[in-house]
Amino acid sequence: MASSPHILQQPPPHWGEDQLSAFVQLGAQAAWASFVQPMTRPWFDKLREIDATYLAALQALNGPTQNVFEGLMLASAHAAFRSAAQFALEGRSGEAMVLLRSCLEYAMYGVHFHRKPELIDVWSKRSDGDTQRKAVKKAFKPTEMLAGINALNNAVGSRCRHLYELTIDMGAHPNEVGFYGRLEIEDVPGTADKIFKTKYLAGGDASHLVAFKSACQVGVCVLECFYLVYRNRFDILQVSAKIDGLKTGL
Fold this sequence. Notes:
By secondary structure, the chain is mostly helical. Helix content is 69%, strand content 4%.
C-alpha cells in the first residue's frame, strides 16, 4: 500500500468555507463521534480487528505466486473495505453499501481467477473493443462467480450471495429499501403539502448500525473467500484462525 505524498498536517486556507469541503469535514467529525460513542465504538473495534486481519492476509502473500491477479484483487478488496468502513463511521450508510458490494466483487473476481486462470487474458483485454467487452461480460457474470465460490465452499458461497443481495437492497442499487430508509417526509402545517428530505449523514439511527454490521460481515466474508484461494498460506501464518475469531458476534 503506497502512502500519498500529498498529505497536509492541518486544514489549508479556506477549507470548510464552501458546501463541499464543509460536508467532507462534517463527515470526519461524524466519524470522530462514532469512534467515541458507546453505541458505535464496539463496531469500530470490530472493524479495526478485521482491517488488521486484511493486513496479515496481505503479508501472507509475500513470496512466489503463480497468479498475481488474485493478490491484487485482495488488495483492492481491502481498499474498498477501508473506504466502506470510513463511510459507515461517517453515517453515509447508502454509499457504504456501494463500496461493500465492490469489496465482494473483488473477492468474486479473485476466486474466479483462481478457478479459471485462463480468463485473466480475457479480462485484461476488456477495453480493446466491443468484442472483448462482450467476452468479459459473458465470462464474469455475478451469478456464475457466486456459483464458483459456492462450489468451493457452500457455506461461504451462501454468505457471499446473501451479502451481495443485501448490499444491493440497502443502497448499492437505487432500490426501494435503501431509498426509503434515508427518506424523511414532513407535513407542512396548515396545508396538504409535503417536504421530502434525504439524509446524507445518518449518524445514530438504524441505517447507521446496519452499515456497521454489514461492513463487518462483508469484511469477514471476503476474507473467507480469499481463504479458498490461499488456504495453505493462511493456515501456516494463522490468518485462517484470525478469520474464524472475527465471526464472533456477527
